[in-house]
Amino acid sequence: MLIFYVSVLTAVIYASLFEWTLHRFVMHRPFLGYWYPYVAHALTHHRIFQSDKRYHLQDEKDKHTIHMAWWNGPVLVLLSCIPFDLAGWYLGTWIIPLTAMGTIACYYGTYEYIHWCMHLPRKRNIERTGVFFRLNGHHVLHHRYPDKNLNVVLPFADLCFGTLLLRSKIPFNQVRGEMIPDLQPGEAQKTVAHS
Asked: Which positions of the chain have pLDDT values less than 70?
């Protein structure tokens, strides 16, 4: 049972590092001549969704740019599981790769759902939580400073690699809303009672 819990914890940490690496080196610049993620994310998603009122969906025709293409999930989950497959093969157990695959698939699903809720708020239950409130502010700052706050789900890699930004250093025209913290410099963080 210990191997299961260690696999889950390792997979969550690894998924944060994988998300950060993919976001920084593949989604925000062309990678080895591969332009699709860069165009879809940096040039399209960031052009449509910014850190002001355009952080939320303004035009229904742009809804498809919130989430990744349907095939990205299976491809990214399978790619990110390779180290766990090798570890399972080396140790002679399927617990590690199967646990990692399930954990990473859940992480990816969480990424897509939270990201969807951030850009298309509908007062869902998750949007009323303190965790969402903080992650939403984290993501607003990413749309203001694209080289910061590269994680969406778990900002562990942002903390490790020095890209974590808690508030803006200069005032900016920020999106406002009940589930978005005040990210302006020098002001007290907006507090909201969360269930």
From this structure: 187-195
